[in-house]
Each structure stands twice: as C-alpha cells, then as structure tokens.
Amino acid sequence: MPVVPVSPTRQRLPAWFRRSLPESAESAVTDAIVRKHRLTTVCEEATCPNRQECWAKRAATFMLMGEACTRTCTFCDVAHTRTPPPLEADEPERIAAATAELGLKFVVITSVNRDDLPDGGAAHFAATVAAVRGRCPGTLIEILTPDFCGNGSALATAVAVKPDVFNHNLETVERLYPTVRPQARYRRSLEFLRRIKEIDPTRRTKSGIMVGLGETDDEVRTIMADLRAANVDIMTIGQYLRPSLDHHDILRFVTPDQFATYERWGREAGFSWVASGPYVRSSYFAEQVLAGAVESLPAPR
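Structure (tokenized):
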C-alpha cells in the first residue's frame, strides 16, 4: 500500500491566506437553525475554513446520511465507520424546513459515502431534493454526491429529480488516488460525470479538485482535459489545508498567481466557469459560481 505523506509539524500558512472574517456572533442564527432541525453540515464535519464566512450569510452545506463515512480518504476530516447508522426517514423534510427558515435561494446538499447501501444513498438524495422543492419551489439546488460505486441505476435516480447542478468531485489527479482516495477510482468518477450528461444533456455538471497534495501543474491541465472530455461545465480548484497532523501532508502552497493561471487554463479548456483560489471549495459561493456560468449554458428543463 502506498505510504501517505505525513509530517510531525503543521506548516505555517502563507501571507496570502490572511483575510478578515465576520464576527462569529453573526453566524449564530445559522447555527441555531442547524441545531433546531438536528442537521449535519459538511462545514463542521469537514472542518471547512470558510464556515464562519458562509454561516454569517446564512449559507450552509447540508450533509446527508450521518456524520461518519464508509471511506478513508486521507485529506478528509469526516469521521470513518464500518457500521453506519440507519437512514433517518425524516431527514429530507428537516433539510427542507431549515432551507425555508434560512431563506435560502440556493442550497447545496452533499453526503458521506454510504457504500453499505445498495444504491449508495441515491434515493435519499432524490427524496431530499423533492422535499426542498415541495417547500421551497423557488430555491435552486446543487447536489454533491459520491460515486454510488458506479451503480448506473442509482445515478439515474439522482439525475431524474433534475437538480439545478449535479456535482461530483474528482478531488485530485489520477496518480494520487491510491494514497488520497484509496476506495475511489479516478476513471469510475469520470465515467460517472460523463453519464450524467448522457442521461440528461441539460443537467449542469460540476467537479472540483484540491491542490497541494503532490500533483504537478501538468497533471492539473490533464485533469481539466479529462473533465471537459466528460462534458463537465464547471470546475473548482482550491488549496488543500491539512485538518490535523494525522492527515495527508501539504506538499505545496499554490500561489494566487498560479491559481489565476489555472483559471485561465480552464477557460481555454472550455469550462463555462472556473472558480480557482486558495480558499475555494466546491460549495463555496456556489450560487455565484452558477450565476457566472449560466450565461454560457442552456437552462435545465
């Protein structure tokens, strides 16, 4: 098994990571609503560096199907379990209620991997989209799903509910999958993204990667070409930040100039929108990312 790069000390963040954040009190409303409806967010479970900024704007990314994942990706701070809990039948309605209470016009719904379920949780995603649409018909919905272990019928279930954006992250370049995403398969994920468009050519598709895990810039260009070959519309690129000393090391800090270069490369590759920057995450300012893409994309039907 490949050795995961781990060093005993935490690297100091470069100067370009300094930024002003809103007072934590401003995010109290979002926090209270999340607690009231007993919801899990990727903002908390994955230790997202943007949580305070997003929650101050009443934006949160809901995470379905529990707090622990059946996979052991070395970049991720979400807990791991071999025995996940049963699905909560009322979770879709609780997310819909929170979406309404937060007044969200755009909501991102993701999940842990549930490889223990025959459909990987696809039906639960579909039920959640339906619940949000029922209560908040004007709200745009982005789903960020696992690969459902390549299950074609599960994918069809998730596509059938017509999310406004269908996101599935590649996370890193193909060479690093054995150390970074040991239970995932790069080519399987590319095929997953390609098949979304095959099932419904009007769906907007999206994928994202982190840099700083050991990839080269040439490999970043290759992943762009692979995503465009799968007809992916939107790409996000952000800096990997190590959640703890037990996680994969940060092997480089990409400069803002290089992130700008990635954005240019992505535009040249044909993406309708590329969000590229140190703090970019797949759901960070997702509404604005979609707004930047819609002018060059047909509206979903």
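The chain has a mean pLDDT of 89. The chain has eleven helices and nine strands.
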